[in-house]
């Protein structure tokens, strides 16, 4: 059986925090705000995997009200999602994703992001897609107020 899932996330910029995308710290003037490390890309991928499994979303497994996960590395969240997939007898065929960010430019970091994401999911880097686009200066992304990410996942049993 083949199943697909979709995920979307957005986080506002915040000064004084590191910018973490796909498990990689990216040099920038601002990081992203969140209870976790605010890795918007990993969060979108996590929801895509959970959606493919027909499970509740990331906030069910990692509630923002849980003080023990403050600052959690979102690669750990992906590891949990991969474990949930394995428990249900699924393997992850591939994930694909797009970051929507006016700044910074991120594609030069994509190979390392693919390594980190794939390792957390227990798959190979070529099973992970990471792409990026600006929002052509329109809307909250265009005003550099935050970063959005979307992802799909394909799982097979
Ligand atoms: N944050 C971003 C946004 C885009 N890129 C790369 O630039 C290319 C052109 O972007 P447009 O929005 O003008 O289409 C895009 O295909 C990416 O390769 C990036 O690295 N980081
Ligand atoms: C993992 C969590 C935990 O608080 O991370 P946040 O940084 O709050 O990010 P968000 O994408 O708003 O919601 C997911 C949360 O469950």
UniProtKB/TrEMBL annotation:
List of residues binding a divalent metal cation: 9, 11, 43
Metal-binding recorded as keyword: yes
Residue numbers marked as site, Transition state stabilizer: 35, 134
UniProt KW keywords: Isoprene biosynthesis, Lyase, Metal-binding
Cofactor(s) annotated in UniProt: a divalent metal cation
Domain of life where this protein originates: Bacteria
Catalysis: reaction(s): 4-CDP-2-C-methyl-D-erythritol 2-phosphate = 2-C-methyl-D-erythritol 2,4-cyclic diphosphate + CMP
Free-text comment on the cofactor: Binds 1 divalent metal cation per subunit.
Residue numbers binding 4-CDP-2-C-methyl-D-erythritol 2-phosphate: 9-11, 35-36, 57-59, 133-136, 140, 143
InterPro entries for this protein: MECDP_synthase, MECDP_synthase_CS, MECDP_synthase_sf
Stretches of the chain forming a coiled coil according to its record: none
Record's subunit section: Homotrimer.
Protein name listed in UniProt: 2-C-methyl-D-erythritol 2,4-cyclodiphosphate synthase
Name of the gene: ispF
